[in-house]
Amino acid sequence: MNINFIIFRNLKKNIKNYYLYVFALIFSVALYFSFVTLQYDPSMDEAKGSIKGGAALGAASILLVAIVAIFLLYANNIFIKRRSKEIGLFQLIGLTKSKIFMILSLENLILYFGSMLIGIFAGFSVSRLILMILFKITGVEANATLRFSSEALTQTVLVFAGVYILIMIMNFIFIRRQSILSLFRTVSSTQARVKKMSIMEIIIGLLGIGLILYGYYVSTRLFSGDLVEMNELFLSMVMILGAVIIGTYLFYKGSVSFIFNAIRKSKGGYLSLNDVLSLSSIMFRMKSNAILLTVITTVSALAIGLLSLSYISYYSAEKMAQQTVPNDYSIVRQEDRDLFTEALSAGDIAYTEVEIDVIQMNVDASDIIGSGLEKAANDSGEMIFPFVSDKSVSGVDIAPGEFLLKGMSDAVTQFMSIKNEGQITIETKGSTDALTLNMSGLEKGAVVSSYFSHGMPTAVVDHSIFEQLVQNVDPEIQGGSTKYYGFDITDRSELKEAENIFTKLDLDSKGPNWSQAETISYQKTNMGLMMFIVGFLGLTFLITSGCILYFKQMDEGEEEKANYTILRKLGFTQGNLLRGIQMKQIFNFGIPLIVGLFHSYFAVKSGWFFFGTELWTPMVLVMLLYTVLYSIFGLLSVIFYKGIIKDAL
Predict the structure, then answer these.
(1) What is the C-alpha separation between 7 and 13, in angstroms, rounded?
(2) Could you tell me how many helices (H) and strands (E) the chain has, helices first?
(3) What angle, rounded to 10 degrees, do the helices at 561-569 and 574-607 form?
(4) Which residues, at least 6 apart from 191, have a Cβ–Cβ distance to it below 8 Å?
(5) Could you tell me which of 160, 229, 358, 377 has the fewest CB atoms within 10 Å of its CB?
(6) Angle at the Cα of 484 from the Cα atoms of 480 and 490, rounded to 5 degrees
(7) Residue pLDDT, tens place only, 296-334
(8) Angle 179-183-188 (CA atoms, 0-180°, nearest 5)?
(9) Strand order from edge to edge, sheet including 351-357
(10) Is 92 helix (H, G, I), strand (E, B) or coil?
């Protein structure tokens, strides 16, 4: 028997345990190679000017390497411990530690670089598809071609060769530090088992749940208007992050055991087979994996949260653009307006035009702004609001002495807590009495572009009141223009031609003249890229974390095989055991998933209104997709246990 025979025999023997590790490695290499290929693809040059594609993909590739490296090092740590008895046997038959290290290094070399070559080929094969998806999401018009990048190949090989060297260093340290006796005891000492719940563990369990709930509560108040200072917001965010992460760790360290122990006691000691296989096993094993599960849960919540927020922005692009540009085109200068109308008429394009006078006024709005924000602008409680006449707004008739706030965004509604009743006070020149107006309502539809509103709602007043306000304007707070010109193209089929005219005249560079279609495209381009990157990074983490949990189940399954043998000899069928295993996997994969979903929900809910206008549809779709993909690893674990149970007798 020579070294080569031992290497190939070990590979053949362990390949069934390595298949998911190999798949994750192939997937990771393929995704990284695809990212780097996009970074070096010439067709990305057309996109870089508008979406900074190269820089964004470069940053994503660094994060991808970090995720994959951590996963591979952790997975290798699991596998090297599983093979500790085998390493001990090699020493017993006379092989030196150097020889054993060489055998493991050559095995890993074949497995690792073989998988890497397959991954590079797979990444090259799908790189054009990924580029097409990116261009489709971002709206970039460019040709996606299949191109092999030697720069991407070199970078991929160097990066993963570096990870391989780190793995070899880890194996070398492990082999050098272990004695023969310790190698035979490594597997049995990897899981800590506890016989009884102590008072301290009960306190830890309750504290973990309390910290998580406290973090959730503070997150709901984060942008409610109670906190207006930047330092207060920052400290609250740090406190939420710390409370939730520490609470999550304590939850796995004590809360799970506390809850399951309470369930077990409520049954008076009469546990079914399902209870024995699920509750009793999980309640103590999660304690020893508390740090790992905390990291998986936190990063899962981060991935789901970021993907939800980017999809909210992408999903809400049109409505957000309508808040910024209420008409197809908004122009603020007379000469630009004349150029555009002449060009539209020359192109025989029918349109409708609105012309609105807009003035900016200092207003004491303390009566309509709640939650401690009445002094957000200055010590006197004054804020600047844009005002327009009701004659300029179609379908609106405001009574004298009243005003209507239009253009209410979700961010303003949440953060400023503007009430739907109350009054504002406006100082007027030449009069000792201030002008007081009562609020008649709140509406979302914007009246003028954000050049005039600056993100604030627009106050619509009676025409006679507006004329009175015009006589009392403060020139220092008026912008460069007090006239808004809005254009809507009558025939929507001519919108593209009108867009070409607007672009050709270069009106957007001559002043704050905006196109709604261009604003939508810009929003979708930027947030589409963000969604693309976060989506692929999230998918990478999902697969790597799912694999880690699966590997842990493989360890537990091998360790508990003797228990299943005893249960089978007592008369329990494969079906009896499998039902308990299914319940166990629901807890093993379901608890980190559910906790991660709750974390991401409260994180997204606290500030989603800064990213878009729709919360539930994008967030629910992201969560459902993540749950379905995550559940696949739970199903694979059940299939693995089915094989263990079948071989137990």
Answers:
(1) 10
(2) 23, 10
(3) 140
(4) 285, 288, 555, 556, 559
(5) 229
(6) 150
(7) 999 899 999 999 999 999 999 999 999 999 999 999 999
(8) 140
(9) 351-357, 483-489, 329-331, 514-515
(10) helix
